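User: Predict the structure for this protein chain, please.
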Amino acid sequence: MSYFTVLLNSSHIKSEFNCGQELLDTYLHRQAMQDIKRHLAACFVAITPENVIKGYYTLSNSSVQKDLIPEDIKKKLPYIDLPVTLLGRLARDKKYDGERLGELLLLDALKRSYDASITIGSMAVIVDPIDRNAKNFYLKYGFIELPDSKRMFIPMKTISELF
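Assistant: Here is the predicted structure, written as structure tokens:
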């Protein structure tokens, strides 16, 4: 399997990363390595040849209540809590505006999530958009808003059609 990103490690230069969202910048600068060490999230990075981070995303296991899933999907599912993959953060450095780096990171995350779902159960990828711009970004790529929630998801069945 080939991916656009690699797992974050200490050789990657994080200090220059600036996406314009303090929460996402601070996470990469101060928290991401700790989350990896504690197995709380996996952080994948797109890097330059000099190991400077251009963008990143995080993945972890999660679940969503069946009641939040659209009727046409949930009627086929027997469990109350459904396993999903959480795309917790996705950000690209502002220096790379116009390179469609966000799209490449998202596609990489979806492919990685789909591949993992073959061996570890996950029926969808779920996101918690940070703001309206993020929400519009995910809508553009087929994510569905979950009712009574700020979350959005895309079923693995939909993702499988991409690859």
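The first helix runs from residue 22 to 37.
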